[in-house]
Amino acid sequence: MQQVAIVGTGLIGASFGLALRVAGFDGSIVGVSSERALADAEACGAIDRGAPLAEAVAKADLVFLSQTIGRILDTVRHLDGLVKPGALVTDAGSTKREIVGLARQSIRCCQFLGGHPMAGKETRGAGAADAELFRGRVWVLTPDERAELETPAVRAFREWLEGIGAHVLVLGAEEHDRVVALTSHLPQLASTALGAMLADTAQIQVSGSGLADMTRLALSSYDLWRDILATNSQAVDRALSLYIQELEHIRENLRNRRLEEEFQRGAETAARLRNRK
Amino acid sequence: MQQVAIVGTGLIGASFGLALRVAGFDGSIVGVSSERALADAEACGAIDRGAPLAEAVAKADLVFLSQTIGRILDTVRHLDGLVKPGALVTDAGSTKREIVGLARQSIRCCQFLGGHPMAGKETRGAGAADAELFRGRVWVLTPDERAELETPAVRAFREWLEGIGAHVLVLGAEEHDRVVALTSHLPQLASTALGAMLADTAQIQVSGSGLADMTRLALSSYDLWRDILATNSQAVDRALSLYIQELEHIRENLRNRRLEEEFQRGAETAARLRNRK
């Protein structure tokens, strides 16, 4: 892997560039983004220089699409014929079904493999880039068939993912979207709903740290979430429906011991997430 | 204020004792609790000694009930005649209507004033006691009438509350319970429901820090919450119903711009809690 093109040098793209550098990558890293995002990414050392899309991807061995979902879909539509054979195009989009489906139809000149690093921050932009952002975090890859993981380009990419500390997990694109509807999109909407519902409550300062925790995600920008929810609405609808059922169950059992089971199940999940079990 | 009795020397009781000491209280602090809780509280300097209830409260100018709600109700039933006239009995129970109502009927020998410090930790017990636990946090007082706040005993108590850094807020007991149903009990159940619903999901490691945040409260013990929910079930039922309505509204608008309004309202609340607005 000699040259990398990072398309979209925001938090994820710039962090990926920095992480590659820290892991020892000494090839060239070219960014494709707005003028300002390129300046920020260059200033923090995440890219060597900026270039237009066609120029940046022409010689790249790895093309990393780290834009918002809508822009990734747009880039995928325009990549075919621009990337050299034997190169790998991958992405960091938060939903996979639509992106992988479109890439399957559109990109014929080289290999495409969907990806999703489960990492982020409240702060956006290259200014918040962090070479350690992916360390210890899951990085999902979504091949249609396992054989896609054994090409030379993907083998090289996976070695770099290990180098930056990510844990690769292979899932189907549909399975990925079902899981993140539950583990990421639902928590976001549960937080947003709680914040929205309390917008007209005067006395919210009468609260402990719990409410602050539960509304941290509600600070997230709709700009990011519009595309995520629009490209995963069926699975999110199903997740919301299950959550509402669980809340109704709790509501019906507020005064009896069945509630204890729900507390136990809730605590088990929370402990499992914290690797205590 | 010469002598204080702390009934229940867990996290809140022991932190209150420590905070009084740090704020300069040099009178005697007597604890009433289990043998082990008393030993822990004495070891960390929160109390001078332990004593049985009748002995501890007989000479106290301030009796602070920092047990679970069920035990506070039990103590309130047994206090009358034991406390000296002119003393103040107050409490730290997380719901106020039942406690204040029972105290109004049961305690005739001295003044009772309901209270609720909005402070806590995941770790229970005197071992986690912290003199700074109440600094910058709201401490709700729930008199039936404002005149109750002007007795010498309450004036002295409020001065100590300021001394330990708490911000006193006066609310009616019913109003308190309605507000905390929204700002504390609902967030707990929203977290528990999310955790419980995901108990059978294998892939929960495919998640970012958001799910970990949203399930922190789910680690809380049912033992504490049973009494809270049982003594505020009407207001909690109403809060759950409003939350479910909001989730249904979001569910119906997953693919259109009305969702943007909910994100904006959610972010406003989250920012308001963080004093950014």
Put the structure in a nutshell.
Chain A has 277 residues and is α/β, with parallel strands linked by helices. Chain A contains eleven helices and eight strands.
Give the helices and strands, then pairings.
2 copies of one chain form a homodimer.
Chain A: E1 3-7, H1 11-22, E2 28-32, H2 35-43, E3 49-50, H3 53-58, E4 62-65, H4 69-79, E5 88-91, H5 97-106, E6 111-117, E7 138-142, H6 152-163, E8 167-170, H7 173-197, H8 209-214, H9 222-230, H10 233-252, H11 258-273
Parallel strand pairs in A: 1-2, 1-4, 2-3, 4-5, 5-6, 7-8
Antiparallel strand pairs in A: 6-7
Helix pairs in contact in A: 4-5, 7-10
Summary tags:
homodimer; alpha/beta; 8 strands; 49% helix; elongated
Structural features, described:
The structure is a homodimer of 277-residue chains. Chain A is of the alpha/beta class. Helices cover 49% and strands 13% of the residues of chain A. Chain A is built from 11 helices and 8 strands. An 8-stranded mixed sheet of chain A has the order 3-2-1-4-5-6-7-8, sandwiched between helices. The model of chain A has no long low-confidence stretch (mean pLDDT 96). Chains A and B meet through helix 7, helix 8, helix 9, helix 10 and helix 11 of A and helix 7, helix 8, helix 9, helix 10 and helix 11 of B.
Question: What are the secondary-structure elements of chain A, in order, as H or E?
Answer: EHEHEHEHEHEEHEHHHHH
Q: In which range does the helix fraction of chain A lie?
A: 40-55%
As residue ranges, the low-confidence spans of chain A are: none
Biggest sheet statistics of chain A: 8 strands, mixed
- Derived from helix and strand composition plus strand pairing, the structural class of chain A reads alpha/beta
- Distance from N terminus to C terminus of chain A (CA atoms, Å) equals 39 Å
β content of chain A, as a range? 5-15%
